[in-house]
Amino acid sequence: MRVKVACIGGGPAGLYLSILLKRQDPAHDITVHERNPEGSTYGWGVTYWRKLLDRLHVHDPESAREVEAASVRWNEGVAHVGDRLTRQPGDEGHGIGRHRLLHILAGRARDLGVRLEFESEVRADDLPDADLVVAADGVHSVLRTRHAGHFGSHLTPGRNRYVWLGTTRVFDSFTFAFVETPHGWIWCYGYPYGPGHSTCVIECAPETFTGLGLDRCGEPDRLALLEKLFAQILDGHRLIGRPAGEGGSPWTTFRTLTNRTWHRGNLVLLGDAAHTTHYSIGAGTTLALEDAIALAGALREHPALPQALAAYERARMTALLPAQSAARYSARWYEELPRYLQLPPEQMFALLGQRHSPLLPYVPPQLYYRLDKAAGQLDALRRLKRWLGPRLARSVHARELAARRPAD
Description:
Blueprint: E1 4-8, H1 12-24, E2 29-34, E3 45-49, H2 50-59, H3 61-69, E4 72-81, E5 84-97, H4 98-111, E6 115-118, E7 132-135, H5 142-146, H6 148-151, E8 154-167, E9 174-181, E10 184-194, E11 197-204, H7 206-211, H8 219-229, H9 231-234, E12 239-240, E13 252-258, E14 263-264, E15 267-269, H10 284-301, H11 305-335, H12 345-353, H13 365-375, H14 379-404
Parallel strand pairs: 1-2, 1-7, 2-6, 4-9, 7-15
Antiparallel strand pairs: 3-5, 4-5, 8-11, 8-12, 8-13, 9-10, 10-11, 14-15
């Protein structure tokens, strides 16, 4: 059955959904509306893991081959804690420039017959005439905001301040750097995404942000200060902010978005318009693309739109629970960073890798490290950890949800 689809937002989720729907049925009439000019995008590089790449090869081998060819890889992590250094092997990670990823997906969508309309802003009170309207317009989605009461939208602000920057320093691994200042710790996550560039996400507690004067100085002075603080890993390279015409590089707090439901009539939420997970788990783009795969699959399997959207919502809400739990605990680990930074570097890095654990905040760090090391060698402890962790996570999450509900 031919379906007319209007996708609002030309990010990875919206573009990939249009590709999948056109592959399922070339007769589908699909338009992607993007409010910004073509080729203009914020951000530097995005990360993903091998499991996602395998899924992309299954669902659209042509675009997957291009994405893989344009990506860089690493299989270890490096942590600098003051003047201490530790290096550990890890899973294979991939980085690709956001601009390059969008270029690949937009080109593939066009080749399949999708209409891409740039500088096309859709207002919430003037939706396109379509059988299905997809809100893929990000965390600030105007379509979701218009019906926030129906969707049950809830935004939970984080505590720490952070900024996304680029650099010409090409890291050979996923690199962490933790620097102590008179006003507290400040840290960086760095990863390569192309032949000549890496992403640097810099984060600190609010008192460190104000103590260092980052709230009061202009962009050039902020970058100069950060270059001095992270000189050890930058190796003489500069940090790159967003152009002044785009407002510079904003420091903000991460906001975790959840929604009670993801669809209303023929309107459905996709990607960051539906949910966000803290950037420290590196899953935002992966989850958005997996949303697109699930929505396309539900529309293929359920001819009736209400049943398709309900099936999509159920499947993705269930699939997201582990990632959302991991993101909550990862963000908390960084908010409680001084708890871990006095450990020997190899122990600190080991707990950095365990930051998704719901047990970690409730166990003294050195004890947790010893138990985790023992669990790797004893089956009984490993089984106990796997059994107890998810149950504790569900219990804590249920209490958080209950606290949000208004009293009767």
